[in-house]
Known about the structure:
Jelly Rolls, 7-stranded antiparallel sheet, 3 helices, globular, binds manganese (II) ion
Amino acid sequence: MIITYLSAPFCNIQVQHSLERWLLWVEELAENDYVIIDDFLDEELFRKIMAHCSRHLPDFTQAGIGSLGDFTIQEGIRGDRTYWLERSRDIDLRAFWDLVDEAIHIMNRYCYLSISDSEFHLAHYPKGSFYDRHLDQFAGRNNRMISMVIYLNELWQPGDGGELEIFRDDDSVIVEPLAKRCALFKSADVPHQVLMAHKNRFSLTGWLLYQPVGLGQFLG
Ligand code: OGA
Ligand code: MN
């Protein structure tokens, strides 16, 4: 067990990762605008999230794009189905919420961000679906600071598709959606897309926000 390094109000959560590891990740995030972290979830937390995901499969709904007023469903741009999570309702994910708090603390303390909230959904890309190139911000909705995507695909193999493609100045980076892997990137600065999934593809995706979430989570 790692002794907590968090201060109030987070001092009684059990941290998942050492400060040394976090500092390496944060340095890479600052330098490259993104960082890919393998084994971000331990086995126990991974199983809890998988169980939660299976239990709530009937509750997933078609995701849309845009924000209040211009929200639309366009499967030619984005074909995933999502289930928005809530801390007060999805309490069997407690260890996950602690991990989110740990990340928020680290970002605020070491990246000088003012993150005060977060929003997360489970996402399912059925075979044949994808999400075109985009930024995780849109008109009327610019409070997403850091995107956090955690992959849940245990049996993923080359050819299964659904890779995350992160665009850089002149090239791009392909990230395989492997179980327990986490992609962290700056929401406003990193264009990215999800390549077509050839098999079911699952993730736990969310954003660290600099303002309370308000109505936003129903809208994007
Ligand atoms: C998103 C997104 C990336 C991924 O949901 O906005 O870009 O790899 N997800 O699932
Ligand atoms: Mn995105």
